[in-house]
Structure prediction request, 307 residues.
Amino acid sequence: MIELIKSDISYNFTSKFKITSLLSAILVLGSLVLILTKLNYGVDFRGGAEIQIKFQKEVSLNDLRQTLKEQGFKDVSVQTIGEVTENEVLVKLQGDESNLNEITQEVETSLVKSFTGAGVEVRKVDIVGPKAGAQLRVAGFQAMLWALIAIMIYIGLRFDFKYSPGAIVALFHDVSIILGVYALTGTQFTLQTVAALLAVIGYSVNDTVIVYDRVREHEEKYAGVSLSTHINKAVNETLSRTLLTSGTTLFISVSMYFFGGLAIKDFFLAMSIGVLIGTYSSIFVAAPVTLFFDNLNAAKAPAKVNA
Prediction:
């Protein structure tokens, strides 16, 4: 196997945990403030209209977006449906529940005028009310919550429950920062974002499990050695694998972000950030939390004996 970094290096990662923990805390707190104040919910979660349109000829999605923006429609999202050759698109736009019917009619009229030669056919119009959007928003966050709980139980059974808090804090750290970037850049939070976050959770926990597995091997092989030493050895031994895997995944994610088209751009924005943050958190978030709880339990043990 190709090794970017030799497995016998002995860099002291645990000595940096205080600095990285402070940095992570600042990033998470800042992200939470941005999420609560600036997160831009899309049509799926805030309410709006979805219009499925069939064109007889090929139409550029960029031209379609530009036309709708020039007509004064705000927060417009356009994506293809099915095969590209079918020339079907889904237009999502936001508006008040009271005027959504008027807006959808205006969109239809505008497209018919602007793309007369393309053969515009409106196939379906769905209106999502604010209440339905709010329920969908809650369901999206619940999906992520249940995923975190399931991962916590899995890690507790697979390794030891002392490892579970570290994995959960790392995942919460990753999701918070990704949503913070979304809020900071004004990128819409949609169902596609939820799918991306669930993918990031899976990727991040896989990285964390690799480190945990190596830590457990060292604990079984070298009894009596401190957990911080085990963590250092485990991270050093898996560092080359981590960089190769993360680098390859990041290359694909960034390529898809820039060249995959607007329909999947937001998804791969979350994936690209998630790969970077997930790699960082598996070393500098999950491990310090595990070490903290291990030291806490060690401090409690003498107190129990004295009692």
Remarks:
- The longest helix spans residues 227-259.
- Strands lie at 40-41, 48-55, 77-81, 88-94, 120-128, 188-189.
